[in-house]
From TrEMBL:
InterPro entries: HOTDOG_ACOT, HotDog_dom_sf, Thioestr_dom. GO terms for biological process: acyl-CoA metabolic process. Pfam families: 4HBT. Residues 1-10 have a biased composition (Basic and acidic residues). Residues 55-175, 254-369 form the HotDog ACOT-type domain. It comes from the Eukaryota. Residues 1-39 are annotated as: Disordered. This is Thioesterase/thiol ester dehydrase-isomerase. Keywords: Hydrolase, Isomerase, Repeat, Transit peptide. PROSITE patterns: HOTDOG_ACOT.
Length: 409
């Protein structure tokens, strides 16, 4: 297991990452763009077990490893773990395609989306095992399911699942850049058939969600009523004649923003010389965490990461602007809320920006006797963001429940 981590460790990165399946390797010959003619790849029928990969992080014994992951609270950094999950998903996908190492492959495998990561309990600094395998394949896409467990070497029966994660990886021909067919899956038993069916359902659900997205269609009738209710509420607080001031537990959505700007450095590139997806997730998560902390004025609990689509690769040297906002918080008896982070590539010369990712995180206020603020939009654009956050909150909760049930948890 540790061998896997070593094999995937890169020469130029990974002081900080334990699994670096798709992270950068030293580019010994960076200049010429001369490609050999594409080779005809032979496909082979693979089982789910063929791609099974696990990595143990022996934090109780390896103090220098723990030093790389520990946070100020004495628990393990979520951002680092999500970075590792992305690397593990890449390692699993390359293995399914018949390659132990990314740099010996004639395929370019990229993270197309992180469909869901659910954190079920805090990550204590115990020994941890990350594991997973391919559960579904399309033509060029592979769904990878992973989990992280707390393990106790002296008591193998005493283990607890800490998180479950679902990624979609896509294979491109390294020479032509076109979609490349991946090895088909041979399903061995009813459980594997169920996992495969879940993968197909996830793909269909994504298509439906994308068709009813608020960027394509107007809000539903129920949502339009909600926008009007929100409008009436904010008008009430803004109208000085009504003498009704905004309560302390209501925050204007426009006042919940937080931003950062980063330069994308070569140390964080993957084998394809683009910025490693897991690194982008960590940056976005850390900004969202800071924003969530300021919003509730306390340390929040991280519950989940909702679907992120990696629409565009990010090149080394890019100036990346990250803008975070509390998009939905119902307040009242509800303690969880949605934080959106938008990542934009800045074109310095032309003073323009292009969005490459939108991240959605769910946090919760751990103080059950404390009122979590409600966010209130004041513009139509903010109201649409609020609806998007609310949809994700509802769908995310359903999906998390369904995934856990299907995984027998
Ligand atoms: C992922 C990417 C290659 C998809 O490009 P595209 O033009 O939409 O690809 P295609 O239309 O050829 O679709 C290829 C496959 O990807 C799947 N796909 C595309 N976008 C997806 C998404 N957001 N979520 C899940 N699957 C997706 C398609 O369903 C299709 O699957 P199939 O071949 O099994 O039927 C492209 O968006 C990209 O390069 N994104 C950046 C990736 C990146 O930088 N990741 C982080 C660093 S690794």
């Amino acid at each position: 297991m540790e061998k896997l981590a070593q094999d995937h460790r890169t020469t130029s990165t990974s002081k900080t990452s334990n699994i670096t399946g798709s992270k950068a390797i030293e580019n010994k010959n960076p200049s010429p763009e001369v490609h050999p003619p594409p080779k005809r790849r032979q496909l082979a029928l693979k089982t789910m077990k063929d791609s099974y990969t696990e990595v143990v992080m022996p934090f109780t014994k390896d103090k220098s490893l723990l030093e790389e992951y520990i946070n100020v609270n004495g628990t393990v950094r979520h951002g680092k773990i999500m970075e590792d999950l992305d690397a593990l998903a890449a390692a699993i996908s390359y293995k399914h395609c018949g390659y132990e190492l990314a740099d010996s492959s004639d395929l370019t495998i990229v993270t197309a989306s992180v469909d869901r990561i659910d954190f079920l309990k805090p990550i204590a600094a115990n020994d941890l095992r990350l594991s997973g395998h391919v559960t579904y394949v399309g033509y060029s896409s592979m769904e990878v399911q992973m989990k992280m467990e707390e393990i106790f070497p002296d008591h193998p029966e005493k283990k607890a699942t800490i998180l479950v994660a679902l990624f979609t990886m896509v294979a491109r021909d390294a020479t032509t850049g076109k979609a490349a067919q991946v090895n088909p899956l041979s399903l061995q038993d009813d459980n594997e058939k169920k996992l495969f069916q879940m993968g197909e359902d996830h793909k269909a659900r994504k298509r439906t969600e994308s068709e009813r997205a608020l960027t394509k269609r107007p809000p539903t009738e129920e949502e339009r009523f909600l926008i009007h209710d929100l409008y009436l509420e904010y008008s009430k607080y803004e109208n000085s004649q009504l003498n009704c001031s905004k309560p302390d537990d209501v925050q204007w959505m426009g006042d919940t923003k937080m931003s950062s700007v980063q330069i994308m450095q070569p140390q964080d590139r993957n084998v394809h010389h683009k910025i490693f997806g897991g690194y982008l997730i960590r940056l976005a998560y850390e900004l969202a965490f800071c924003n969530a902390s300021v919003f509730i004025r306390n340390r929040p609990i991280f519950l989940a990461l909702d679907e992120i689509a990696f629409r565009k690769p990010v090149s080394v040297g890019t100036t990346l602007a990250l803008d975070s906002q509390i998009a939905y918080s119902g307040g009242g008896e509800h303690h969880s809320f949605q934080v959106m982070v938008k990542a934009d590539i800045l074109d310095i010369k032309n003073n323009t920006r292009e969005t490459c990712n939108t991240f959605w995180f769910t946090f919760s206020d751990p103080r059950k006797d404390h009122l979590t603020p409600k966010v209130l939009p004041r513009t139509y654009a903010e109201s649409v963001l609020y609806l998007e956050g609310k949809r994700r909150r509802i769908e995310g909760a359903k999906l998390a429940q369904l995934n856990r049930k299907n995984l027998g948890m």
